Amino acid sequence: MRHGKKVNHLGRTDSHRKAMLANMASSLIQHKRITTTLAKAKALRGYVEPLLTKSKNDTTHSRRTVFSYLQDKDTVNILFREVAEKIANRPGGYTRIVKLENRLGDNAEMAIIELVDYNTVYGKDVAAKAEKKSTRRRGGSTKAKAETAAPVAKETAAPVVAEETVAEAPVAEAAPAVEETPATEAPAADDKEKNAEKGE
Q: In whole numbers, what is the pLDDT of the chain averaged over residues?
């Protein structure tokens, strides 16, 4: 029984397991993606993620600590120069395990383990989220504001032109209106005179 035993020994001795995980971690850092069994991928994730976190702080002490696990200078240089820049804003979860079909020979569960920030398929969403992280208290996006501002500008431009035509129109109509008023009053006066004559 394996009650409370968290470490999967992977059927190997301690020294063999450590050497294998160090080799797999170096391959993962160099190639950004490796294919292995699901059990090894899960064991590797627990081994390599603390090293990736350590690489964010580029000091001599952290480099020596990581080198004691990986035992490969080139891999340590790649980790601290290239990979550390990519994962700088990520608070954890640097690797992704994707299950594959079982292996033909022994029907073992296979998986791909990869660095999340180096995947071109899923990396676009992460980049978009990282850019959109700024806190907004109220209002919409700048794109929505631009779309609402354009119709408002068009509406304000149109009434200005309409007001000019309206302002010109009353001036032109004012003169005829004055001329028409006496004409309309004259017939009214004639009607009063005619009514007065009929009454007489």
A: 79
Whether 180 and 126 map to the same domain: the answer is no
Number of domains in the chain: 2
Q: Which of the 8 DSSP states describes residue 200?
A: -
Same domain, 153 and 79: no
Q: What is the pTM of this model?
A: 0.61
Q: What is the DSSP letter of 58?
A: -
10 Å CB burial of residue 44 (0-12, 13-18, 19+) is buried
Number of CB atoms found within 10 A of residue 55's CB: 25
Q: What is the pLDDT of residues 118-155, one digit of tens each?
A: 987 775 555 555 555 566 677 666 665 666 655 555 55
CB 113 within 8 A of CB 28: yes
